[in-house]
Structures are given as C-alpha cells and as structure tokens.
Automatic annotation (TrEMBL):
Residues 1-21 are annotated as: Disordered. The gene is Slc25a53. The keyword Translocase does not apply. Keywords: Membrane, Mitochondrion, Mitochondrion inner membrane, Repeat, Transmembrane, Transmembrane helix, Transport. Belongs to the mitochondrial carrier (TC 2.A.29) family. Pfam families: Mito_carr. Its main location: mitochondrion. It is found in: Mitochondrion inner membrane. GO terms for molecular function: NAD transmembrane transporter activity. It comes from Ictidomys tridecemlineatus (Thirteen-lined ground squirrel). This is Solute carrier family 25 member 53. Residues 8-21 have a biased composition (Basic and acidic residues). InterPro entries: MCP_dom_sf, MCP_transmembrane, Mito_NAD+_Carrier. The chain crosses the membrane at residues 30-49, 177-195, 215-237.
Length: 306
C-alpha cells in the first residue's frame, strides 16, 4: 500500500508539472500562497540578511557585523525591512507566475525541455529585475549604517530620489546598479528553474515524503545558485548603497573598486557566504515546498471536479 501511494503521488507530481494546459496558465491561489510564504521567510531571515549586508559593505567577520548591529541598538535591528517584505511578496508572484506562463507559451503540450526551462527562467528573471530593483535599492540604502543620520526613513530616501530630474531618478536613484541586478536575477532564475525539477524528481524516487523532495530541491538549488552569483550580490550591494551625484563610477570601475577593497582575494569577496547558505536554504526551501504543495492540491481538486 505504501508503494502504491508513493507511485500515485509521484505520478500526480509529474502530471502537475508536465500537463500545464495553456487554458490555465495563471493560478491565483499559487501566487497568493507564494506571496505569503515569501513574506514569512523574509521576516524570519531578515536579521541574517542584514548581517550579510554589513559583511558585503565593510568586509568584516560575522562576529564583528553582529557587534556593530548590537551597538546600534534594537530600534535599528529591523530598519529597512519594509522594502524587502514588499519586494519578496511581489517576487513570489512575478517569478513563478511569469515562469509558468512563459513555459506554457514555449511548450504548450509539454514535456518541457531544459532549453524551455532555461529560457522561461531567464525571462522571468528579467521581469523580476525590472519590477523589483527599486525596492532593493531603497533597502540597501536603509541597511547601510553610514546613512542612518542622513536618511532616517524610507520617505527621506524617496524624497532624495524624487529631487533628481527624470533621468537622474532612474540612473542615480531607483535603478542605480541595475545592470548587475539584471544579470544576477536572469541567470539566477534560469539556473534555479532549470535544475529544480530534475533534483526534485531524483529525490522523489527515493520514497521520501512528498514534501521533502521539494523542500530539499529548493534549498540546495537555491543555495548553489546564490553562491555561484555571490560576487554579483556583493557588487550590487556596494553600488546601490551610494547616494548622490558626486560619486557615479561605471560598472567596471565599481567592480574594480570592490576587488581592490577586498585585497584582491576571492575569499574576502565571499565573506558572508556561510550566512547566505543558511538564508537561501530557508527561503528557497520553504518557497519551493509551498508552491509544490499548492500545485498538487490544485491539480487534485481539478481531478475531483472532472
């Protein structure tokens, strides 16, 4: 009986991902649950993210970053959380929703090849970068301890950006550091979606509970993807933490500056990587598991109606 249940669950999981009829590309319930899961995971892992951000900016050890935050006081501990809460909620809907829609457009009848998954993931990452880059920009300014006196709130940052001209609002304000964000998000999404299902299918063959393969697949795949692109994460954090017209280095100059300030050592570029593993494991694991759970439930209800 256990083997029969496992086989049935595996068959349902496979049909859920491969049938994907074009008539029903969008699943509002999946977006809602994905948004909630991203909201919760972002709130729980935000302290980790803030420590990582301080390491990326100042190239300091974990203990030193924690000591710096403790010295600033608890009133600043969750400073800058509102932009990531909003952006991650939107990310849960945009990333998975755009990917599913593009995948069905590229291959309406399935099965979906690696090329289809890569292309759909790449384009969904582009959409994510365009929509969410301003949120990340504001978040990075808020989290920089050097900006607390000048910009005590999100409103003060928005006021500064809106004081620029139209082009300045984009290039110096909301979309500063956009090109590395675009590369990071597009490649990250392509890698994540290309290998998420193969890893999950391989784990499902081991007879594990249905939620374990999705959780482990999202955790492992998201973590590896994040670590591969970690230098871009550091570059984005440094570019987006700057404010004003006085210092506007090019992308290459910014990358060279980060490399020089890290002593031209790779291990200093990757300082904070251990905490990225923890944060990515929790965030992507939960998001993938919840999204997979909702897909299976939705498909089961559809079969009952049919």
């Amino acid at each position: 009986m256990g083997e029969q249940n496992h086989s049935a669950g595996k068959e349902l999981q496979h049909r859920t991902r491969t049938e994907a009829p074009a008539k029903k590309n969008w699943h509002p319930q999946a977006y809602t649950l994905g948004a909630i899961s991203n909201f919760m995971s972002t709130f729980l892992t935000f302290p980790i993210y803030k420590v990582v951000f301080r390491q990326q900016i100042h190239a300091m050890a974990v203990s030193e970053a924690v000591r710096q935050l403790s010295h600033e006081g608890p009133q600043y501990f969750y400073r800058g959380i509102y932009p990531p809460l909003l952006s991650k909620t939107l990310q849960g809907t945009l990333l998975f929703g755009t990917y599913d829609s593009l995948l069905c457009s590229l291959s309406p009848d399935g099965p979906h090849s690696l090329g289809h998954r890569w292309t759909a993931g790449l384009m969904s990452g582009v959409v994510e970068a365009v929509a969410l880059s301003p949120f990340e920009r504001v978040q990075n300014v808020l989290q920089d301890g050097r900006k607390q006196a000048r910009f005590p709130s999100t409103f003060s940052i928005l006021k500064e950006f809106n004081s620029y001209g139209l082009w300045g609002r984009l290039s110096l304000g909301y979309y500063r550091g956009f090109w590395p964000v675009l590369v990071r998000n597009s490649l990250g999404s392509a890698l994540y979606f290309s290998f998420k299902d193969p890893i999950q299918d391989g784990l499902a063959e081991q007879g594990l509970p249905h939620w374990v393969p999705a959780l482990v697949s999202g955790s492992v795949n998201g973590t590896i993807t994040c670590l591969v692109l970690y230098p871009l994460i550091v570059l984005v954090a440094n570019m987006q933490s700057h404010i004003g017209w006085q210092r506007m280095p090019s992308l290459w100059a910014s990358a060279q500056d980060v490399w020089d300030t890290r002593g031209r050592k790779v291990f200093l570029i990757y300082r904070g990587g251990s905490l990225v593993i923890l944060r990515s494991s929790v965030t992507w694991g939960l998001t993938t598991a919840i999204h997979d759970f909702l897909q299976r439930k939705s498909h089961s209800r559809k079969e009952l109606k049919d």
